[in-house]
Amino acid sequence: MKSNVPTLAPLLRTNLQGDVLALLLLNPDREWSITALAERLGTNLPSVLREVNRLLAGGFLRERKVGRNRMILASEEHPLFRPLVQMLEYSYGPLVVLPEVLRGISKIELAYIYGSWAARHEGIAGPDPADIDVLVVGRPDRLALADAAEVATRRLNREVNIRTVARDSWQDDNEYFIRSIKERPMLELDLERRHEE
Predict the structure, then answer these.
(1) Torsion of CA 105, 185, 119, 145, to 10 degrees
(2) What is the SS3 string spanning 121-187?
(3) Can you tell me the distance from the alpha carbon of 153 to that of 140, in angstroms, rounded to the nearest whole number?
(4) Reduced to 3 states, what is the DSSP secondary structure of residue 25?
(5) pLDDT by residue (tens digit) across 77-131?
């Protein structure tokens, strides 16, 4: 059953608010235009604009005008910055941290979060996920993946399990494991930097 309250961090208003905060506060030195935020988060511009304006009004974010663009970034001076970063790494951090640690590992074609964390992000009620399950499509170096999982585990304060499948296996819906993943919520990780400005 889907919940309207964010199941990853019920203290927040919406999952979009959590995703916006995570993207900005977990990368405090990076600026984003509103358009780039909407593209990266896969949502519409008005929704992101509403969240950004609320967070700007609360002092959690700051902005810099470049021509007609508003460049948005975290306000590290806010008294709640450090506690929020800790909460966001644990709750919404996987969508920010995992692309960072997987980017640069060659032969990754696609990567997804699946399992209980993906289900909670999509509003399906249940217990707090004990770990984060990641599926990597391709033939990356297993040692590099193990190192990435270790870094992500330390940063997210949850165990990160990375499983790999070859492209042909991923396209074979007759395989039980692949079919079971595709039938449940999964979130594609954005491994490119095309949205960053």
Answers:
(1) -10
(2) HCCECCCCCCEEEEEEEECCCHHHHHHHHHHHHHHHCCEEEEEEECHHHHCCCCCHHHHHHHCCCEE
(3) 19
(4) helix
(5) 999 999 999 999 999 999 999 999 999 899 999 999 999 999 999 989 899 999 9
Look at the alpha carbons of 96, 97, 100, 103 in this order and tell me if their dihedral is positive or negative: negative
Instruction: Please state the pTM of the whole predicted model.
Output: 0.84
Question: Looking at residue 197, what is its pLDDT?
Answer: 44
Please say whether the beta carbons of 100 and 58 come within 8 A.
no
pLDDT (tens digit per residue) in 136-171? 999 999 999 999 999 999 999 999 999 999 999 998
- The span from the CA of 182 to the CA of 167, in Å, is 14
Reference 180, options 130, 139, 133; nearest CA is 133
Of the candidates 58, 77, 63, 75, which has an alpha carbon nearest to the alpha carbon of residue 34? 63
Confidence grade of residue 12 (pLDDT, cut at 50, 70, 90): confident
For residues 29 and 23, is the Cβ–Cβ distance under 8 A? Answer: no
The number of C-alpha atoms within 13 Å of 181 and in the hemisphere containing its C-beta is 24
Q: What CA–CA distance (Å, rounded) separates 138 from 169?
A: 10
